[in-house]
Each structure stands twice: as structure tokens, then as C-alpha cells.
Amino acid sequence: MTAQTLTRVDQILEHSSGLEKRRRLYSGLFGAIFVALVISGFIAAEEMNSGGFVQGITSFFDYPADIVMETWEAGPAWFGLLWTYFPALIETINMAAVATIFGTVFAMGLSLAATRDLGVHPVLVPIARRTMDVMRAFPELIIALFLIFMLGTTPVPAIIAIAIHTSGALGKLFSEVNENVDRGPLEGMSAAGAGWFKRVRWAVIPQVLPNYTSYMLLRFEINIRASAILGFVGAGGIGSELRKAISWSNGADIMALFALLFLTIMLIDQFSGYLRRRLVGSSFMLAS
Amino acid sequence: MSTQTAPSMAPGDAARINAGQADVIASHRRGVLWPAGLLAMVCVYLIYAFIAFDVPGLIAKSRLDRGVLLGLDSVAYKVHIEKNLRRDQLEIAVEGERAAVYETPPDWVTIDGADPMTSTVDIDMGSGYRFVIEGSSVTLTGPELYEPLVITSTAEGVEWTGATPDWVLLDPRKVEARPSLFERVQVTSGRILVFRYFWGWEDFWFEFRSPLNGLSAGALWSLAWSDERIEPETSNARFIFDEFWGNPGWQHGDVFKALLETIIMAFLGTVVAAFIGLPLAFLAAANFNPDPVSRFAIRRVFDFVRGVDNLIWSLIFIRAFGLGPLTGVMAIALTDIGTLGKLFSEAIENIDNKQVEGMQSAGAPAVTRYRFGVIPQILPVFISQSLYYLESNTRSATVIGALGAGGIGLKLVETLRTGKDWENTLYIVVLTVIVVVGMDMLSGWLRRRLSN
């Protein structure tokens, strides 16, 4: 080894240790900013809150304890309440299901238009993508409240609101699936002279359907929660009942509704998890 | 040179081909029948839902016209011209508010005398219609009126003469005429009220009475730099900002604060969830926690907090911690400890164990093994999922806020409840959508940068 190569090695070592130092400095700085943000956020949140953290934590269990006590006092009659509220639960599930069906249909159309190289006009691609962005960004609550004003307090405004949000959210996921299809079958179909409809039907749909279904099931689960929440603002279903029970402080009723909602969400979670694992092999989750 | 020989067929081949063909046809038929059956089922279900939700009844009862008026109200404002015969008073005001009364009439209103009660008030409605108020009656002239419509307010009610097109609602107690969405007159006993609509958000930057109202951006800019102070105590730039920030009609300062609350809720909720969820995820992962009982317990805890949903958690937390962002933070954090914990534990179970084993054989202690053997492998999942949930929590924070936790959601519901200030509602909606889309883009950008 000559002296020259040794200095080269030294130079490289020095350079890399410099880089390492800078990297540490950056991650240290980033960490410090992050911690400062978190602490100042907590201080701000504590100040803006009407009740404090410390006094809150001591009384935290009071309310759940009240609910449990009232449920206990209700005795076996409590199980009758479950039956009483069952129709409301069915209504909530129906709201979610109808919204998911319509949302999926629209999402399929939008995602086809939002995917390049699937034979749609290239002008449509950015239009469809921006449409989906806007549909996704509008909180369901706002659309629902607006529609309730026009259509009255029925479940339909909530269904429309959820369907709009679902179209945007699913459309984005679907178009990501579309981007990743294997192009072989498509080329084969066009080589054999198939038209656009046949290409999509026989070369694209079979590839994307398992993923579509699994995303749809996941969305159905999210939509049940969403329709329960929208019930709270007057869209009917279990949310409306919950609002009544909470404002009248009927502990046993609140518990019955919580139990129904929790059991439903858990059952559907398990069922759709099982179906999804069968369809795509691995389990995955995505937020709304 | 190529020789082509016809493929010879063995005796059984033809039968095999036929059988194969039948198979293909059968599978094709199944491929067609399956979706058709499913589609039929979905259709039947939708018909059931159509009846269960009473859609025909809903359509009959729906008030789509309210939607049009509401849409108009959120992008336009109206100037009221009210003549009160009982109180002997004529008032021109933006949205009829006491704080926004015109001292000299705008140029589309001409009053031909000193006393507005006795003189003629001639209102040019801007689209060919003219509404002239004289004494206790108003005369409408315009393209769709072959003769003037005169509506008179009397002590007992309302009387009218002249043309009455179908956009006039005639009732002895109240007559309302609305030739188009932008012009309207209402006459009741003792009162004549004319509305003229204008596009835009009125007094968005500065309050009606503010000295800055109506100034152009250039004028404001030069004012901010000039030495002549409007208010002796404060600098002009500061004054301009205060006037804008404290504008009572729009409450920019309050809205901004509420928006900040919502962002704080989403950010802190996600951070807390991620940092509590990570250690718990190790306890829920089979390759790090050999004890099946505690593993099962942790996993069920994850399921429980996730299943209850942040809406319900927020209802419980509001009772304990009162209204405010802290409540929202805890509701979001608790739910997401479940979701992120579950996701992280799945990522931990899928790591490549060779790196940990290598470090172990080199004699590294447990902390070092975790730090350099495990963390780098799950970091991408940790960061990308946390960012994803930050984005979705911004939306959830709006909803939780609307149900009582505060922030922009509560502000939105407040404006909706009054049902009058739809332009404020639209303003808040636009801001919310900007924040949600901004968060979406930020997290998407960060995730792309980190995955490279």
C-alpha cells in the first residue's frame, strides 16, 4: 500500500465520519423540534380544555362506574333492552351496507377513469383523481348536516354522505390496485383483437377483484362506525338512540347500545378479517 | 428446409380434447353465472333498502328549494331596505344587522327628499326591475310585469293591484315577490322589506364600521407603511391585523384557534398512540413475548379500545375532562393505541430474525439488540402507518369536535345550528377541507420521501 492510497482512505474515512456527524446533528435537531412540538401542544391543549388533566383523571372512572352500576341494577331486564334496540342496529347496518354498495360502484368507475393506460382518454385521468381527492376530503358530517337540512332527519342523508366519502376513499385505493396490474393479459387480449370492454372484463377485473373485495369489506366496517356517528346528528339508527340515552343519562340503555355497537363491530371485524385473509393471503389494514 | 407433418392423433385424444373443451365452457359459464347471481342479490337488497328507508316518502317531503337558497346564501349576501310604518323608520343595512347600517344610501338607492319617510325611495334592483317605495306601498316594474304590481301595507294586512306572475306569493297577511333569486320584496302589515342580493362574502376582511372597510390591497399596503397612525397607540400594520383578526362577523381569530385545536388533537393523539402502542406491540408479538396468556390479554385490549371507537371514548372523556382538545387527544390516542399496536405487532412478527441472532452471537445486550436489530426493520412501518393515521385523525378530530370536544367541528356545528350564517359555514368548510387536503399531501409527501 502506498502512502497515497492511505491518504485517500483517510480522506474517505474523514468524509464519512463528517457525514455521520451531520446525520446525527440532523436527527438530533429533528428530535428536539418534535419533542418541543409535543410539549407545547400539550400545554396548549391543557390550557384550552375546560377541565384539567389532573382533576379529570381522578373522576375519569365515575361515569363508566355509573353506567355499570345502573346496568347492574337493571338486572336481567337489561337483556330485554338489547332486543329493544336491535331494529336500530339493523337500520345502522343497512345504512352502512347501502352506502358501501353505491360507494363501491362509483369508486370502480372513478378508478377506471383515474388509471393511465387502461384505454380511457388521458384528459379524464387528472379530472377523476381531483374529483376523488375532493370527495375524500369533505368530512361526512358536513355533507350529512347539509343534506339533513334539505331532506329532513332520515337515514338517507347519512347514506349519501357516506357513499360520497366511500367513493373517494375506495376510488383512490382501487386506482392504486389498477396501476399494479400485470399487463401481460391485457396485451394478449388486445393482440387477439378484443375491444375495450372485453379487455377490462377478462384481463383487468379478474386481477383486481380480490383486492377490490377486501378493500370493500374493510370500508364496510369503517362505514358502520360512520353511520353510527352520523346517527348522532339526527340521521337515525343506533346513533340517534345513543344520543337520546346519553342526554337522558339512562345508564342501562347506554350500556345496551355500547354493547350492541361493540359486538357488531367486533363480529364484522372478525368476519371480514377472515374473508380478507382468504382473498389476498395477508392481513392488512388501512384507515379511512 | 422445414418439414411439416400433420400432428398425429392418438385414439383417446379427440375425446380428451372434447372433455377439456366442455370443462372450459363449464368454467366460463360459472364465471358468468356467479357475478350475475351476486348482482341479482344486490339488486334485491337495494329494493328492500329502498322500501325500508321510505325513499318515495322522502322525495315527497324533501325541500330541494331550501338547498338552492342555502347555496345562494353561502356565496352571496343581501342588503335589507326596511320601511317600518309603525316605528316611522327607514333603514338600509347589510344582512339587516344593526352594526352594518348605511348612513348615506348606496348608489342604487335614490331618496328624493330630506325625510326618508315621506319621500320616494327608488331602488334599482340591478336586473331591469325597479322597486319604488312610496308612503305605505311598493310599486314593482320590470320585464315580466305587463303592468306595475302595487303592493300596499295596511293596518289589517296587505292589498295588491296589477300583474301577479307566479313568482308572487299572495296572502292577505303577507305578500312576497321574488322575480329572481337576487331580488325579493316582502310586505306585511306595517312593514315593507326589500332584499337585494350580491355575490361574495360581505365585510370578509374588515367589519362594516371599520375605517379600513372597502380599502384596496394597495391602499392597505401603503397605509401599513405610512407614519400617520390611525390609532395613536398602535402601529398601522398592527391595527390592520387586529381589525382583520377581530372582525366580529367572521371571527378569523377564533376560527384559526379552533383549527389549531383540531390539528393539535390529531397530532398529539397520533403521537401518543404511536409511542404507547409501540412498546405494547412488543408484548403482543409472539416472537418477543413467549407467554401466551399476557399476549392474548394485550391483543384483546387492543381489540377492545379499537372496537369501542373514538366517538364513544370521547363521550366518556368529555364527562371527565370537560370540553376541549385534551379530551379529543385522549379519545384519539386510546383508539389508535389499539389500531397502531395491532399493526406494529404484526410488523414485529414479520421481521427477519437473522439480524437479531447475529447481534446476539456477537454478545450484544438486549437493549442494543432491540435498538439495532429490530427497530430499523419496523421503522418504515412505524412511520408510514403513523403518518397515515395522522391524516385520517385530522378528519376524525373534526367529527369528535362536532360532538363536543371542541375545535373546528364544534365551530361548524354552531354556525349550522343558527341556520342563518351559511357563509360562515362555507368559510369553515373550506378551511377544514384545505387542512385535510394539506395534511393528506404532507403525509403522502413524507411517506414517499421516507420510503426512498
What would you say this structure looks like, in words?
- The complex is a heterodimer of chains A (288) and B (452).
- By secondary structure, chain A is mainly α.
- Chain A has 2 domains: 3-59; 74-280, MetI-like fold (Orthogonal Bundle).
- In chain A, 84% of the residues lie in helices and 0% in strands.
- Chain A contains 12 helices and no strands.
- Chain A has helices at 3-48, 53-59, 62-74, 77-84, 86-113, 124-137, 140-151, 155-179, 183-191, 196-235, 238-247, 251-280.
- In chain A, α7 packs antiparallel against α8 and α9 (183-191) packs across α10 (196-235).
- Chain A starts with a helix and ends in an 8-residue tail after the last helix.
- Mean pLDDT of chain A is 83; it is low at 282-288.
- Chain B has 452 residues and is α+β, with helices and mostly antiparallel strands.
- Chain B has 3 domains: 76-199, no CATH class; 203-243, no CATH class; 252-451, Orthogonal Bundle (MetI-like fold).
- Chain B is built from 12 helices and 12 strands.
- Chain B has helices spanning 13-52, 55-61, 64-75, 217-225, 236-245, 252-284, 292-321, 325-349, 354-361, 366-405, 408-418, 422-451; strands spanning 76-84, 89-94, 109-111, 121-124, 130-134, 137-141, 149-153, 158-161, 168-169, 174-180, 183-188, 191-199.
- Chain B has a 6-stranded antiparallel sheet with strand order 2-1-12-11-10-9. A 6-stranded antiparallel sheet of chain B has the order 3-4-5-6-7-8, with no helix packed on it.
- In chain B, a hairpin with a 4-residue loop joins β7 and β8 (158-161).
- The longest helix of chain B has 40 residues, at 13-52.
- The model of chain B has no long low-confidence stretch (mean pLDDT 83).
- The interface between A and B is large, with 61 and 70 residues.
